[in-house]
Protein backbone atom coordinates (compact mmCIF):
# COMPACT_ATOMS: atom_id res chain seq x y z
CA UNK A 1 0.00 0.00 0.00
CA UNK A 2 2.90 2.36 0.73
CA UNK A 3 4.14 1.79 -2.82
CA UNK A 4 0.73 2.65 -4.25
CA UNK A 5 0.52 5.85 -2.23
CA UNK A 6 4.02 6.75 -3.41
CA UNK A 7 2.74 6.45 -6.97
CA UNK A 8 0.02 8.94 -6.13
CA UNK A 9 -3.10 6.79 -6.22
CA UNK A 10 -5.89 5.98 -3.84
CA UNK A 11 -6.14 2.32 -2.79
CA UNK A 12 -9.61 2.17 -4.34
CA UNK A 13 -8.07 2.33 -7.81
CA UNK A 14 -6.27 -0.92 -7.20
CA UNK A 15 -9.24 -3.18 -6.55
CA UNK A 16 -8.57 -6.51 -8.19
CA UNK A 17 -9.66 -6.63 -11.78
CA UNK A 18 -11.89 -9.43 -13.02
CA UNK A 19 -8.82 -11.02 -14.63
CA UNK A 20 -6.94 -10.91 -11.33
CA UNK A 21 -9.92 -12.48 -9.55
CA UNK A 22 -10.05 -15.24 -12.11
CA UNK A 23 -6.36 -15.88 -11.57
CA UNK A 24 -6.92 -16.25 -7.85
CA UNK A 25 -9.90 -18.52 -8.37
CA UNK A 26 -8.10 -20.70 -10.91
CA UNK A 27 -7.93 -24.33 -9.94
CA UNK A 28 -4.97 -26.67 -9.99
CA UNK A 29 -6.23 -28.33 -13.16
CA UNK A 30 -5.74 -25.06 -15.04
CA UNK A 31 -1.97 -25.39 -14.64
CA UNK A 32 0.31 -27.98 -16.21
CA UNK A 33 3.48 -29.17 -14.52
CA UNK A 34 6.10 -31.80 -15.43
CA UNK A 35 5.19 -35.24 -14.19
CA UNK A 36 8.74 -36.10 -13.20
CA UNK A 37 9.15 -35.03 -9.55
CA UNK A 38 12.84 -34.38 -10.12
CA UNK A 39 11.93 -31.52 -12.46
CA UNK A 40 9.28 -29.76 -10.42
CA UNK A 41 8.38 -28.72 -6.91
CA UNK A 42 5.21 -29.75 -5.20
CA UNK A 43 2.28 -28.83 -7.46
CA UNK A 44 0.18 -27.04 -4.86
CA UNK A 45 3.09 -24.76 -3.93
CA UNK A 46 3.84 -24.10 -7.59
CA UNK A 47 0.24 -23.15 -8.30
CA UNK A 48 0.24 -20.69 -5.42
CA UNK A 49 3.49 -19.18 -6.64
CA UNK A 50 2.17 -18.83 -10.18
CA UNK A 51 -1.03 -17.22 -8.93
CA UNK A 52 0.88 -14.74 -6.77
CA UNK A 53 3.26 -13.89 -9.59
CA UNK A 54 0.44 -13.41 -12.09
CA UNK A 55 -1.48 -11.20 -9.67
CA UNK A 56 1.64 -9.15 -8.93
CA UNK A 57 2.29 -8.64 -12.64
CA UNK A 58 -1.34 -7.65 -13.19
CA UNK A 59 -1.19 -5.03 -10.44
CA UNK A 60 2.22 -3.78 -11.61
CA UNK A 61 0.95 -3.24 -15.15
CA UNK A 62 -2.12 -1.46 -13.77
CA UNK A 63 0.07 0.81 -11.64
CA UNK A 64 2.25 1.65 -14.63
CA UNK A 65 -0.69 2.46 -16.90
CA UNK A 66 -2.46 4.52 -14.27
CA UNK A 67 0.73 6.38 -13.39
CA UNK A 68 1.15 7.47 -16.99
CA UNK A 69 -2.50 8.21 -17.64
CA UNK A 70 -3.17 10.32 -14.54
CA UNK A 71 -0.02 12.44 -14.37
CA UNK A 72 -1.61 15.22 -16.42
CA UNK A 73 -4.74 15.51 -14.29
CA UNK A 74 -2.68 15.33 -11.09
CA UNK A 75 -0.38 18.06 -12.41
CA UNK A 76 -3.38 20.28 -13.20
CA UNK A 77 -4.72 19.53 -9.71
CA UNK A 78 -1.42 20.70 -8.22
CA UNK A 79 -1.30 23.80 -10.39
CA UNK A 80 -4.88 24.69 -9.48
CA UNK A 81 -4.02 24.18 -5.82
CA UNK A 82 -1.11 26.60 -6.11
CA UNK A 83 -3.32 29.13 -7.88
CA UNK A 84 -5.96 28.93 -5.17
CA UNK A 85 -3.32 29.32 -2.45
CA UNK A 86 -1.38 32.12 -4.13
CA UNK A 87 -1.59 34.22 -0.97
CA UNK A 88 -0.13 31.44 1.20
CA UNK A 89 3.14 29.56 1.45
CA UNK A 90 2.36 26.16 -0.03
CA UNK A 91 4.47 23.05 0.55
CA UNK A 92 4.40 19.63 -1.07
CA UNK A 93 2.73 18.35 2.10
CA UNK A 94 -0.12 20.85 1.66
CA UNK A 95 -0.61 19.79 -1.95
CA UNK A 96 -0.35 16.10 -1.06
CA UNK A 97 -3.32 16.45 1.29
CA UNK A 98 -5.41 17.90 -1.53
CA UNK A 99 -4.41 15.24 -4.07
CA UNK A 100 -4.57 12.53 -1.38
CA UNK A 101 -1.12 11.19 -2.15
CA UNK A 102 2.38 11.32 -0.71
CA UNK A 103 4.50 14.49 -0.52
CA UNK A 104 7.35 12.71 -2.32
CA UNK A 105 5.09 11.99 -5.30
CA UNK A 106 3.98 15.62 -5.40
CA UNK A 107 7.61 16.75 -5.32
CA UNK A 108 8.37 14.59 -8.37
CA UNK A 109 5.51 16.18 -10.32
CA UNK A 110 6.46 19.67 -9.12
CA UNK A 111 10.05 19.02 -10.27
CA UNK A 112 8.76 18.45 -13.82
CA UNK A 113 6.58 21.56 -13.66
CA UNK A 114 9.53 23.55 -12.36
CA UNK A 115 11.80 22.28 -15.14
CA UNK A 116 9.18 23.49 -17.64
CA UNK A 117 9.18 26.94 -16.03
CA UNK A 118 5.61 26.71 -14.73
CA UNK A 119 6.45 26.52 -11.02
CA UNK A 120 9.15 28.02 -8.83
CA UNK A 121 10.37 26.39 -5.64
CA UNK A 122 12.43 27.16 -2.57
CA UNK A 123 15.13 24.80 -1.38
CA UNK A 124 14.69 22.11 1.25
CA UNK A 125 12.53 19.03 1.66
CA UNK A 126 9.65 21.09 3.06
CA UNK A 127 10.32 24.03 0.74
CA UNK A 128 7.45 26.04 -0.62
CA UNK A 129 6.41 26.28 -4.27
CA UNK A 130 4.36 28.75 -6.26
CA UNK A 131 3.27 29.51 -9.82
CA UNK A 132 5.87 31.24 -11.95
CA UNK A 133 3.16 33.14 -13.86
CA UNK A 134 -0.45 34.16 -13.48
CA UNK A 135 -3.01 31.47 -14.25
CA UNK A 136 -4.24 33.41 -17.29
CA UNK A 137 -0.78 33.04 -18.81
CA UNK A 138 -0.52 29.25 -18.32
CA UNK A 139 -2.27 26.90 -20.73
CA UNK A 140 -3.19 23.30 -20.04
CA UNK A 141 -1.08 22.34 -23.06
CA UNK A 142 2.00 23.58 -21.22
CA UNK A 143 1.12 21.38 -18.25
CA UNK A 144 0.38 18.44 -20.54
CA UNK A 145 3.79 18.70 -22.17
CA UNK A 146 5.60 19.42 -18.91
CA UNK A 147 4.72 16.06 -17.36
CA UNK A 148 5.14 14.04 -20.55
CA UNK A 149 1.53 12.88 -20.62
CA UNK A 150 0.64 10.15 -23.15
CA UNK A 151 -0.92 10.78 -26.54
CA UNK A 152 -4.65 10.69 -27.12
CA UNK A 153 -4.52 6.93 -27.71
CA UNK A 154 -1.97 4.19 -28.29
CA UNK A 155 -1.58 2.00 -31.34
CA UNK A 156 -1.15 -1.67 -30.55
CA UNK A 157 2.04 -3.52 -31.43
CA UNK A 158 1.94 -6.90 -33.14
CA UNK A 159 3.56 -8.86 -35.91
CA UNK A 160 1.89 -8.16 -39.24
CA UNK A 161 0.14 -11.06 -40.92
CA UNK A 162 1.24 -10.74 -44.55
CA UNK A 163 -1.82 -12.55 -45.85
CA UNK A 164 -4.18 -10.05 -44.19
CA UNK A 165 -4.80 -6.63 -45.78
CA UNK A 166 -6.06 -5.13 -42.52
CA UNK A 167 -3.14 -6.45 -40.50
CA UNK A 168 -0.65 -4.92 -42.93
CA UNK A 169 -2.24 -1.47 -43.17
CA UNK A 170 -4.15 -0.75 -39.96
CA UNK A 171 -1.16 0.82 -38.18
CA UNK A 172 -0.63 3.42 -40.89
CA UNK A 173 -4.34 4.24 -40.96
CA UNK A 174 -4.49 4.55 -37.18
CA UNK A 175 -1.36 6.68 -37.15
CA UNK A 176 -3.05 9.24 -39.41
CA UNK A 177 -6.10 9.22 -37.14
CA UNK A 178 -3.87 9.64 -34.10
CA UNK A 179 -2.08 12.62 -35.61
CA UNK A 180 -5.39 14.36 -36.35
CA UNK A 181 -6.79 13.55 -32.91
CA UNK A 182 -3.60 14.60 -31.12
CA UNK A 183 -3.46 17.89 -33.00
CA UNK A 184 -7.08 18.65 -32.18
CA UNK A 185 -6.60 17.78 -28.51
CA UNK A 186 -3.47 19.91 -28.16
CA UNK A 187 -5.15 22.85 -29.88
CA UNK A 188 -8.02 22.52 -27.42
CA UNK A 189 -5.70 22.36 -24.41
CA UNK A 190 -3.79 25.37 -25.72
CA UNK A 191 -7.03 27.34 -25.63
CA UNK A 192 -7.78 26.52 -21.98
CA UNK A 193 -5.95 28.48 -19.31
CA UNK A 194 -5.25 27.42 -15.76
CA UNK A 195 -7.32 30.41 -14.65
CA UNK A 196 -10.37 28.91 -16.40
CA UNK A 197 -9.93 25.67 -14.48
CA UNK A 198 -9.63 27.59 -11.21
CA UNK A 199 -12.82 29.50 -11.96
CA UNK A 200 -14.61 26.21 -12.56
CA UNK A 201 -13.22 24.88 -9.28
CA UNK A 202 -14.50 27.93 -7.42
CA UNK A 203 -17.83 27.74 -9.22
CA UNK A 204 -17.51 31.19 -10.78
Would you kindly provide a written description of the structure presented here, covering whatever features stand out?
- The chain has helices spanning 2-6, 18-25, 43-84, 92-99, 103-115, 140-146, 165-190, 194-202; strands spanning 90-91, 119-121, 128-131.
- The protein is mainly alpha-helical and 204 residues long.
- The protein has a single domain (2-151, 168-202), classed as Arc Repressor Mutant, subunit A (Orthogonal Bundle).
- Strands 1-3-2 form a 3-stranded antiparallel β-sheet.
- α2 (18-25) runs antiparallel to α3 (43-84), α3 packs across α5 (103-115) and α6 (140-146) crosses α7.
- The longest helix has 42 residues, at 43-84.
- The two termini are 37 Å apart.
- The relative contact order is 0.11.
Amino acid sequence: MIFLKEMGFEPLIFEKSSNARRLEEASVKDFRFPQNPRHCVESSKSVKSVKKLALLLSVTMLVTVMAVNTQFSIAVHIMAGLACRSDKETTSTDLARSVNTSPSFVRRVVAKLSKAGLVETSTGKAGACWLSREGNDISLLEVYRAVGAPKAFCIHHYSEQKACLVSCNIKAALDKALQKTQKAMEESLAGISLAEVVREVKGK
